[in-house]
Amino acid sequence: MQKGNGREKDLELYIHIPFCVRKCAYCDFLSAPAEEAVRAQYVEALKGEIYQQRFFGEERKVTSIFMGGGTPSILEGVQIAELLETVHDCFRIEEDAEITVECNPGTLTRDKLSCYRQQGVNRLSMGLQSADNRELGLLGRIHTYEEFLESFALARKMGFENLNVDLMSALPGQTRESWQRTLKQVLALKPEHISAYSLIIEEGAPFYERFGPGAGEEDLLPDEDTERRMYYDTGDILKAEGYERYEISNYARPGFACRHNLGYWERKEYLGLGLGASSLMGGVRYRNHKNLTAYLAGDYTHEEVQRLSRREEQEETMFLGLRKTEGVLLTQELMEAYEEVFAKLEQQGLLVLENGRARLTDLGIDVSNYALAEFL
Predict the structure, then answer these.
(1) How confident is the model at residue 280 (pLDDT cuts 50, 70, 90)?
(2) What pLDDT, on the 0 to 100 scale, is given for residue 29?
(3) Domains in the chain: how many in total?
(4) What is the pLDDT of residues 191-228, one digit of tens each?
(5) What is the DSSP string of 317-349?
(6) CATH number of the domain to which 155 belongs
């Protein structure tokens, strides 16, 4: 695509790959195993959607591309290359754009990583979850910790200098000590970014049948006090190693905060491409449909289309923006809209107003679900 006129708005692209080797026991995302032929058909359909949506690039410049899933690295390297070539043909990509591919250990190869590099991929997000093989088996992961180490080392050898590792605490049978070991083993690798989440037992995920309310095995989950201690351990251990917490569940070395995620929390426009992908464009939120058969036939219908009111935009600004540790830059409109909420949360010690911004305190982050709900 030709260069723009310099007045374009920023745009982020999310590209969904809904395939995986095997569904993890905790996962309720739109993903499932599929035969190689189906994956190939999907790549062609996805290229068609990218081409169809190219008009969004006429007055916008792409600052980040995030390939998520599922497991994008299940595709062949040349298939990822074809998708990114189509994106470059249809959109104007900033020279310093952040381009991320989510990867599962056990699906990466030298050839795939070489294709990624050739297409400008400059960030990998690697799903580890735990350094304990027993915990990995319980989660239904397709890899061992040793296989993760091989994939991580290969990525470094191939020249990737911006690596994220996903971790998960409060797993069934997990102890505080095993969580600390996972953190310390991953820190020894010196990744640039770490995403650390607590397990949530989602209805619809296989785990729900075992560990959901009344399922019978809830007692295998860490108790509330242990989960809280794991949460504090995460912040303390990562901070001691120079990682800055820039969002409730995300930590990075200086200069390596995920730009794509920041854009989401700051409500920048993003275009979702692929089965079930969500978008925020021109004040409208919508989602692609989830019918794979229809998508493969070229049906790119949008569902759940919602034009946001001004009040809903304000709610999102606060609800999403306060996830960042730096908080939200306040306008007079926001000050007036949430004057009472600010006063209440300040009195409770959950929020601070300073330097024209609102941000959650450490206590506010600890009870973020409650604090953020006050703005809805």
Answers:
(1) very high
(2) 80
(3) 2
(4) 999 999 998 888 877 787 788 776 667 777 889 999 99
(5) HHHHHTTBTT-EEPPHHHHHHTHHHHHHHHHTT
(6) 3.80.30.20
Side-chain half-sphere exposure of 248, counting CA atoms within 13 A: 19
Q: Which helix (H) or strand (E) holds 294?
A: helix 292-296
Residue 270 phi/psi, 5° resolution? -140, 145
Instruction: Answer for the pair 271, 264: CB distance below 8 angstroms, yes or no.
Output: no
Domain ends where: 265, 288, 303?
265
Same domain, 339 and 223: no
The 10s digit of each residue's pLDDT in 76-100 is 999 999 999 999 999 999 999 999 9
Scanning the structure block, which residue is given the tokens 């997000």? Answer: 125
Contact (CB, 8 A) for 324 and 246: yes
8 Å CB contact between 49 and 302 = no
Hey, how many other C-beta atoms are within 10 angstroms of the C-beta on 231? 18
So what's the pLDDT on residue 22? 83
